[in-house]
Amino acid sequence: MEEQQLQLHHPTTERIVDYFQEKGPSTSQVLVVITLFPIGAVLLCLAGLTLSTTLAALIVSTPIFVLFSPILLPAVLTIAFAVVGFLTSGAFGITALSSVTWLINYFRGMRGSLPDRLEKARRPVQETGGDTGQ
Questions:
Q1: Fewest CB within 10 angstroms: 32, 68, 95, 132, which?
Q2: Taking the model in full, what pTM does it have?
Q3: Nearest residue to 99 via CA among 109, 87, 91
């Protein structure tokens, strides 16, 4: 009995107890856990209920999809191909417009800077004396 009392008052044990008292969770943290635990449990139950309902609906609707698949499959494929066609044509149109815009800007920039380029090319020729082949 005396050994147990000595062990409880051992300096190392007191340091550990002090550490947990200082570093333990605060009152607000405990209240948050107490509040959020039931909410999390309710949400988990709702997620399980949603999963089970979805699986039951899939089990019931699968035979209906199998019976109507000769009608549904071509309809879905037709709609999918139409959507893909519209999206592709739009992408090609945007690409064409951006290419034409780039070409127009390129030629406008080239036209504006062409006289400057010719002037820079004439300067060295004029500085050397023009004609050297008399």
A1: 132
A2: 0.41
A3: 91
